[in-house]
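Bump. Still looking for SPOSA6832_04882-mRNA-1:cds C-alpha cells.
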Amino acid sequence: MAELQLPSNWPRALLLLTFPPLQRWRPRELSVACLPVPLLLLPALQPCASPSPLPARFRPPPADPKESPFLEPAGRNPAEDSKPYASALQEYGAWIMASLPKYIQQTSVYKEELTLYVAPSAIVPVMYFLRDHTNTQYKQVMDICGADYPTRGKRFEIVYHLLSVKYNSRIRVKTYADEVSPVPSVVEVFRGADWYEREAWDMYGIFFSGHPDLRRILTDYGFEGHPLRKDFPLTGYTEVRYDEEKKRVVSEPLQLSQAFRNFDGAASPWEGTGNGIDARAPQFVLQPPKDEAKQEEQKKTEATKK
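Sorry for the wait, here they are.
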C-alpha cells in the first residue's frame, strides 16, 4: 500500500482531537496504515507534492511582537475621521460669524457639533438667518432647554437645537439670562418653539418676552417655584395628598423643608435639628382616640351628678 504523506503544516490540533495517540508522532511520519478510519475519509488526506497554505485562523503569531497578529484590516479610527469634519465645522462657524459679526460672539466645535454663542438681543435675527439662508436651511427647532449655573452673573443658559434636513446637519445656539432679564421669544421664527419655551419657563423661570401664551406646562396650577433651579428644595414646598376625612385632595406645607439642594450624600440636611416643630394647621391635626374605659367612667360620673 502506498503511503500518503500529510502536509507539514497540517493542523496538529485536528489530528489530536480525532486520534489522541498521534501526539508522539510527527505529521510527516504518519502513514495511511496508522491512521484511523475517520481520518482516511477526510478530503485533505490526498497525495500532495507541495504543502497547502494554512488557513488564516491557524497561522502562528508573528515573530515581531509589535506586529499585529490579526489579519483582518483594521477599522478606521473615529478620532482621525473626525479631524477633517471638525475643521470643516470650524470653517463653517467662522463663515457664520463673518456673516453676522454684530450678533455672533463666539463659536466652538465639540464632538463634531457646532455651537454659536449669541447675546439675548441677537437670538431672533440669528434664528432668521439660520432658517432662511441658502447655506444654512435650519428649518426645524428640535429642542429648547435650559441650564442653571448659580455662580455665574447670568445664571441661566438657554440652548437651541436646530436641524437642517436639506444638509443633514445640526447646530446649537446658546444665549444667557438671569431671573429678571427676559429673552426674546422665537415663536415668530419657529412655531415649534412654543411649548419648549413654556417648559423652560416652568422649570427654570426663564421669561420669554413676546411669547403668545407663556404659562406653566408641566407642573400643576398654583405651583410655587421652578423645580430645575439649583436652589429649589428637593422636597418642594407643599405636599399634595388625598384626605380621607374631607374626601378630596388637599395641599399642605411640608413639615420637613430643605432650604437648598445639598449634593453631599454623606450628610443629611435635617441632621441635628431636634424633635422638630409641628407646622400643621390645627384643622389638619388628628386627635388621638380616647380610652374606652375612661369614657365609661366619665359617663357614670355624669349620670351620678344628674
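Residues 232-262 form one domain.

Edit: fixed formatting.
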